[in-house]
């Protein structure tokens, strides 16, 4: 991912006259790979700094932000299971990887003077609060960013499902899924130059065509709760703010 350094970006801008954020509360879903940068593994502080800068631009608009971040840059439970590791043990290790990423993102958000709380589905009070729904909502109402780590606390569930569950629990208006591409395509645009990008697509079409927006459980939960998913390119500086201001970027997954 080619991020521009936060130190070289212009200062964030407050809402101007006539501007209005499209959402009051959102759940931002990031992959662990969003923190990797060009090194290919682990956490790149420069990239984390830029991600934090982008999130600050959203909180400056008055939007309440919850975040779920994966752990694939550190450990992938499913991949380890495929190589012979016990699936349950591997999944718990993956959950712990998300906590490490959450701690890194919390650190850089607070460097940007964004008040932040880290909540985990697995209790570890020395470094994070346990996930308590009412407490999380209260933090959001006070303008704090809440990072939800350790997935659902259960094996066999992905961070996509965890993000959807938390979004429903905090009554978010939408899930924002930041990716490396500019939306949802009918095939892989990296291998098919004729791949078609969707401006909008339905939950059922995502499931039927296996469009890889989120896993089936997550998409079904969104469909059942009428929770829209906005898929956009997180690597382009300023995009998350543009989404918040209602610009038509990426792909919107909605009902019929």
> Radius of gyration, rounded?
17 Å
Question: Percent of residues in helical segments?
Answer: 25-40%
CATH C-level category:
Alpha Beta
Mean pLDDT, all residues = 90
Name the overall outline. globular
* CATH fold label: Carbamate kinase
Strand content: 15-25%
- Give start-end ranges of low-pLDDT stretches: 1-13
- Overall structural class, as computed from helix and strand content, comes to alpha/beta
Main β-sheet description = 9 strands, mixed
Query: How many domains would you count in the coordinates?
Result: 1
Strand order of the largest sheet: 4-3-5-2-1-6-10-11-9
Number of strands: 11
Intertermini distance:
34 Å
The CATH architecture would be 3-Layer(aba) Sandwich
Please identify which CATH superfamily we are dealing with: Acetylglutamate kinase-like
Helix and strand succession? EHEHHEEHEHEEEEHHEHE
Total count of helical runs of at least 4 residues: 8
Itemize the secondary structure elements and their pairings.
Layout: E1 25-30, H1 45-59, E2 64-69, H2 77-82, H3 87-111, E3 116-120, E4 129-130, H4 133-141, E5 145-149, H5 159-169, E6 174-179, E7 184-185, E8 197-198, E9 200-202, H6 203-208, H7 216-224, E10 229-233, H8 239-244, E11 251-254
Parallel strand pairs: 1-2, 1-6, 2-5, 3-4, 3-5, 6-10, 9-11
Antiparallel strand pairs: 7-8, 10-11
Helix pairs in contact: 1-3, 5-7
């Amino acid at each position: 991912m080619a991020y521009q350094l936060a130190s070289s970006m212009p200062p964030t801008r407050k809402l101007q006259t006539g501007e209005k954020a499209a959402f009051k509360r959102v759940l931002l879903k990031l992959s662990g790979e969003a923190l990797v940068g060009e090194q290919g593994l682990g956490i790149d502080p420069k990239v984390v700094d830029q991600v934090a800068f982008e999130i600050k631009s959203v909180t400056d608009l008055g939007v309440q932000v919850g975040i779920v971040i994966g752990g694939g840059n550190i450990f992938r439970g499913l991949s380890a299971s495929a190589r012979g590791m016990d699936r349950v043990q591997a999944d718990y290790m993956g959950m712990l990887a998300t906590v490490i990423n959450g701690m890194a993102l919390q650190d850089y958000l607070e460097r940007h003077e964004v008040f932040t709380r880290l909540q985990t589905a697995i209790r570890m009070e020395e470094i994070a609060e346990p996930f308590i729904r009412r407490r999380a909502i209260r933090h959001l109402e006070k303008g704090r960013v809440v990072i939800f780590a350790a997935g659902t606390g259960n094996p066999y569930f992905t961070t996509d499902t965890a993000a959807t569950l938390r979004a429903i629990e905090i009554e978010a208006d939408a899930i924002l899924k930041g990716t490396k591409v500019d939306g949802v395509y009918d095939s892989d645009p990296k291998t098919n130059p004729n791949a078609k990008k969707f401006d909008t697509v339905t939950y059922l079409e995502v499931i039927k065509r296996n469009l890889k927006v989120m896993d089936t459980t997550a998409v079904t939960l969104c469909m059942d709760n009428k929770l829209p998913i906005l898929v956009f390119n997180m690597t382009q500086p300023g995009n998350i703010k543009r989404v918040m201001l209602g610009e038509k970027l990426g792909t919107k997954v909605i009902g019929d």
